[in-house]
């Protein structure tokens, strides 16, 4: 079968690989669509700490059951909770396996969904509702990241929110925050295409190349500061902004992964009694709810998908992403083509 | 009357000043004891952003009512909740006046308790229980800081804790954490006298000049990391340590006031889903409970007081504090002498 | 001026009363619209513990400033936070004046808004946005009750919810829960008209005269039970249902006011580790946010208003409400007519 | 081997039974001490919904490893987390297996520790520290119940607390609450011996046969009401008291298991915005921490043990418990005698 394989730093290829053979408890899936995500970009660039070539990428996928398992019938469309936990570390022992100290993921630590077929333990699968489009199902995984971030934040009804970064995670988080009742959502970025999309989705775009974020926040909140900040940019300037724009008693939810320590105004955190809360992937239950949520948000989610490529012609996907003029947000790969 | 007056950067004097005249709603207090605190050191050094010379210092005091007010009889000993809030900002409007955006304090923004007399609005006063020593009453204010930090942290029974910094705030926080049921409390510092005191109080001292903090934490927690970190040092290296030693899902309570932004390993916060929570002073209710708590902890609190000076001979108090060989932790000033 | 006056058990009249004279700090409002609520029904029936005849009713109103005050210009439309707190009880001292032990309300403990004019302390007023209809503004107060209930409940995204009671509070709570991201909202009642409205608003109506609530919940939640129950009926059978239909670890938010103690299955609460949380009115900040929320929900809110009566012809409003065949939910009174 | 066997309603016997044969993953334990608990009383009385005769009782035990397993050496003393969860229900799937909808326990749903030997899955075992007395180890299980209750309650430092019921669970909860920093702990009961013990342990006993609980609470809290109520009595009058004595915004932690629905003043819950929170057994992590906590509280725990019986002479233990004049609280059985 064909698969998109990471073969080493800056290099991916479409390769012919052996059809996976389901182990006991696994079912074989015929892949339908699979999203490409920031983590995949990190793997491609060769900087991911764990991923080792050769590796079939892809952890945001929807597939079809090829042969019936114990719970799913043949032909059933499914999405997979892609986390593999060790079961013995402190988080695993205390009901939080999603922050397992040895957490591994399908598509990062073992073969993923950017292929024609994938074999997955059946207990990691969730049924896709009949009336859900495959394109929406492919967004269940990244939306689960946003769902957890919003829940970690404790966002209230009619709260005022700032999302730093209008990449896929930032935009999905802004959408999830609105779904949770946020009144006013500012979205900051430096990329004009992403800001335009943020504006089209109904958010207040803040173009950091020309606008002053603090000023915009002051105006939008009558000088109070925002109730919740979602840091989804992962760059130093965002870490500097996040404490400045939060209101006293406010919350900063940190979804982004900063590659190196960066300066944070700890004085703001103490003086304003801010809560800075990390958010990592999602629990099984949140993944399950992300399916329901995705269906409710389908119309908006559609607009975040900027391109679909056939698997056979996807070897240049990381070049597209790297090219700002392409103005991509979320790219899906059609594994059947 | 005599008072210890801040007269400009690096300079304090004992001065003769006018007896304060109570305004309506105020009562005149004859000062008994008043503690000197890190904030006073900051004012003395000339780096405090608000304090303006000439200023009578002191916000950790116990006094005696000179003339009966509406609620307190003559001779009643009292401690004062020293916070002055604006009443109109967002925190004030939403039940959190202790993080008022224009917060002011007795002894920082207006005349304080390092004097023979002080006039205070009666509704800021709390009665000192009859069986409480004045020395313990003088610690109610800094203990309230520790009480809030411990409550903000959500510390559980038999939790494992690290306190960074064995200054007055660090030691009181360690004591309050133990009072709240912490099982194992590591206290790190670089000052041998403070570490010795930490050890004598029953904590596990970590001497950063020779011990490896991460290693000590791993040993003390079977490799899990501590449940709660209290950052009470206020220096860059502590900000670096705090994320490293917390267990996944753990909490960092930030009491210290970092003068400048400093590097923080945000990746740890996201990956381990840490909660970094600022803690600032205390609410009125926490101040009230600090009185009860102080009495329950009196024996240990006594040991944190390393020296008592007469007010008349207190002009060199900041020199003492600055001299590491003096090995001071908490110094009290006897305002009656 | 004309006013709807409660004159004793089961008796209200349109009376001519003196125009109120603003005290210092108050502004005179020309009333526009005022809602009638369950509490008013209780007062009318003579069972309210505090309300004393003669009393001008009404605490859900929008008015227009007659003469400029310190903050509001003449002609400005406003809604009023109607809570009066004592300032000295434990809740008042600890930042929760909305549960003041001596809580009083405009329209219950002193003259209210079912009149041509009302004088209100200016600091209780909030501006109505220019583009907001008076009818929506009149719903800000009851919506604030629903907003607080939803926030107290900690509702998550795509959570499954049951609302017991399809009265004004139940329907507004169901709407607020959906606004906060609830996926599936069951609404139970015994009144066909109210159930029909619940269905028309997009909820799953459960007609307790024929449907089995537990069964419907099991079906709607794959046997898990609902994540959150809102008890908005205030009758014994609802208190019995609430613990039965919640999932283990779920939350029951109790908004309704049960006149007498009633049997509760405490075994369910312990065994399923349920959280039963009382919710009372709203904080000032929640009232402020309710204005923003009302605007976002305007279309749905419109449908909850089933009738508008002129003040001059409103003396029979409690007869209408008592007549099930009238099928009313929320009745507004036009104070200008 | 000898074992205490429940043979039917109101009947237990010392029987000779077959030595258990460890299945794969299990280790054989030589029982040392085993406590008798309220649940055992329920089983004995024949009212327990699940327990089926013949059954070896006992789930509060300390044993010695007979033959080394994978993690524990021969001779190692251990206590066992006695909960068996299904792994597939909603609570199990969402990290809360301790409220599994099909929860089963060693000693209730399968043979327990009131015997000379017991075979237990090794992964349910925790090491007993070398310096811990067997008598204290035997209290780890009921203390874990108290630990969870205290943590569920969110008790603050110097909080004022009432514990309803001075049985084993009530007294352990009062002790755990004090260990968590409670300032003032009232303990109510109707049994003079238990009240005397509560007083001797340093709590304020409230003898409901003659004292008025509300009055005592008012006095002890300056009229505020208690911050936290622990309902550990499980009788109707306690359910009536619990809402009355809690302060506005206070918490009621419900540990007791009420056999039937009983009247609760729901109006108090709504009006005072109380949180009524169920607490059931404990998580694995809380059980682990209970070992540390037991050691810190050893001196007080000793006093709760009122009697130790040899296993061979324990057939009348339920008669002793039923006889108020015996004034027992916690009875241990010496399984080696
Ligand atoms: N916690 C988790 O479980 C989890 C899961 C998935 C992803 N993540 C992390 O979440 C973050 C966002 O992911 P993503 O896929 O959306 O990444 P992304 O596509 O790189 O999006 C980040 C966006 O932020 C913009 N940006 C740059 N500087 C900024 C600034 N100062 N303020 C605001 N925005 C700025 C970037 O613009 P340019 O592209 O023009 O620089 C980019 O559009 C990443 O750090 C990723 O590793 C975390
Ligand atoms: N949030 C609030 O409301 C509030 C209230 C009061 C105080 N504070 C803040 O709390 C902090 C502590 O106050 P304090 O009065 O206890 O101050 P302090 O006396 O300066 O204590 C800090 C201690 O930390 C030690 N230290 C230095 N480097 C360290 C490191 N890498 N790790 C651990 N410890 C280290 C210091 O040793 P050396 O002295 O030898 O350098 C000193 O003993 C200050 O930042 C203060 O501003 C906050
Ligand atoms: N906490 C607060 O601050 C606050 C503020 C406002 C109101 N409230 C309370 O909230 C509650 C609801 O107010 P409301 O104005 O919406 O009252 P409402 O109009 O009386 O609504 C209650 C609804 O519940 C229905 N009902 C009767 N039995 C039921 C059952 N077994 N299960 C489900 N529904 C049942 C009633 O039907 P029928 O009419 O046919 O009997 C009615 O439609 C009241 O108790 C009120 O006092 C509380
Ligand atoms: N949630 C859980 O996981 C869990 C675990 C273990 C136990 N439990 C439950 O916790 C409860 C307490 O257990 P236990 O072993 O301590 O039971 P217990 O020995 O029966 O203790 C209850 C005590 O309450 C006294 N009491 C009676 N009426 C009272 C009243 N109105 N107010 C205050 N106290 C009153 C009883 O006195 P008399 O004996 O004189 O009547 C008795 O001393 C039980 O309901 C048990 O089922 C729950
Ligand atoms: Zn793990
Ligand atoms: Zn303020
Ligand atoms: Zn009050
Ligand atoms: Zn289960």
UniProtKB/TrEMBL annotation, chains A, B, C, D:
Alphabetical list of InterPro entries matching this protein: ADH-like_C (IPR013149), ADH-like_N (IPR013154), GroES-like_sf (IPR011032), NAD(P)-bd_dom_sf (IPR036291), Zn_alcohol_dh (IPR050129)
Coiled-coil region list: none
GO terms for MF: oxidoreductase activity
UniProt domain Alcohol dehydrogenase-like C-terminal: residue ranges: 168-294
Pfam families: ADH_N, ADH_zinc_N
Entries under Gene3D superfamilies matching the protein: Medium-chain alcohol dehydrogenases, catalytic domain (3.90.180.10), NAD(P)-binding Rossmann-like Domain (3.40.50.720)
Keyword entries, A-Z: Oxidoreductase
Domain Alcohol dehydrogenase-like N-terminal: 23-130
Annotated signal sequence range: none
PANTHER family with a match to the protein in the record: L-THREONINE 3-DEHYDROGENASE
Name recorded for this polypeptide: 2-desacetyl-2-hydroxyethyl bacteriochlorophyllide A dehydrogenase
Organism expressing this protein natively: Marinovum algicola
């Amino acid at each position: 079968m064909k698969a998109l394989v990471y073969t080493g730093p800056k290099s991916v290829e479409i390769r012919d690989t052996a059809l996976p053979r389901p182990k006991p408890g696994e079912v074989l899936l015929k892949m339908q669509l699979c999203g490409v995500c920031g983590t995949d970009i990190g793997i491609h660039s060769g900087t991911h700490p764990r991923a080792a070539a050769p590796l079939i990428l892809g952890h945001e996928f929807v597939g079809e059951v090829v042969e019936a398992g114990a719970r799913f019938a043949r032909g059933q469309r499914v999405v997979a909770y892609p986390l593999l936990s060790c079961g013995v570390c402190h988080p695993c022992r205390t009901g939080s396996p999603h922050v397992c100290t040895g957490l591994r993921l399908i598509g990062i630590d073992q073969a993923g969904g950017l292929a024609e077929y994938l074999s997955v333990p059946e207990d990691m699968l969730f049924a896709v509702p009949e009336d859900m489009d495959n394109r929406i199902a492919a967004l269940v995984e990244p939306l689960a990241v946003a769902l957890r971030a919003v829940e970690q934040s404790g966002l209230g009804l009619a709260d005022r929110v700032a999302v730093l970064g209008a990449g896929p995670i930032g935009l999905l988080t802004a959408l999830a925050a609105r779904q949770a009742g946020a009144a006013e959502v500012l979205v900051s970025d430096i990329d004009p295409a992403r800001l335009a999309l943020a504006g089209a989705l109904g958010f207040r775009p803040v173009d950091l190349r020309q606008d002053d974020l603090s000023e915009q926040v002051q105006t939008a909140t009558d000088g109070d500061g925002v109730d919740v900040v979602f840091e989804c940019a992962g760059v130093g300037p965002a870490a500097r902004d996040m404490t400045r724009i939060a209101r006293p008693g406010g919350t900063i939810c940190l979804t982004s992964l900063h590659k190196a320590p960066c300066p944070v105004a700890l004085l703001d955190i103490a003086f304003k009694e801010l809560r800075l809360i990390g958010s990592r992937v999602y629990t099984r239950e949140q993944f399950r709810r992300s399916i329901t949520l995705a269906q409710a948000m389908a119309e908006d989610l559609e607009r975040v998908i900027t391109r679909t490529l056939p698997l056979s012609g996807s070897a240049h996907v990381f070049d597209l992403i790297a090219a700002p003029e392409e103005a991509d947000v979320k790219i899906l790969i059609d594994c059947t083509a």
